[in-house]
Structure prediction request, 225 residues.
Amino acid sequence: NAGVTQTPKFQVLKTGQSMTLQCAQDMNHEYMSWYRQDPGMGLRLIHYSVGAGITDQGEVPNGYNVSRSTTEDFPLRLLSAAPSQTSVYFCASKDRGTGELFFGEGSRLTVL
Amino acid sequence: KQEVTQIPAALSVPEGENLVLNCSFTDSAIYNLQWFRQDPGKGLTSLLLIQSSQREQTSGRLNASLDKSSGRSTLYIAASQPGDSATYLCATGSSGGYQKVTFGTGTKLQVIP
Prediction:
């Protein structure tokens, strides 16, 4: 049981480049979400999904896109990276019944 | 809007000491409260989950309590060890819909050998 798996773990981008952070979970959770964690700001919700085909914005959605074509996968896309998007990104899935959150190991992104 | 506060932001204790970490929240209409541990450069590991109908949960040397009426939760760590050094975060889940989660900013614990 792998839980929540994120790739890549580290990435360096130049301003304006695009990339996709991958997230997969094997717990059959309907709820999945993306957070960013910055020093002094705590964890902030970027986008979330309550099931395949359903996504919604969180607190800080600008500059990010998501889609949810399967229950297992929830990729996060940066269309045109900016230095302000330098952060550590966490994907999480949630057990709908108990509300328990499970996190991936994180993806550290640096935008130059 | 739910606000979750953890005080102190940092704590240093000698090995073997029992300690309590605090978490307070402003809206008592929560679905659950979850305690996490985060090691440097790592993800968040779930420690304990307390449902709104429960008063406490225990796992090994950890005990978490919940008092919704006062908007407080505590995480008790017995006989602390250097391996307990990490940042501890609490998070409340709201009722309904997506069960929005609100995180505290954490308490960084250092256990000195």
User: Anything to note?
Assistant: The mean pLDDT of chain B is 94. The interface with chain A takes residues 31-32, 34, 36, 41-46, 49, 51, 89, 91, 93, 98-101, 103-106 of chain B (CB under 8 Å). Residues 78 and 108 of chain B are 17 Å apart (CA to CA). The longest strand of chain B covers residues 30-38.
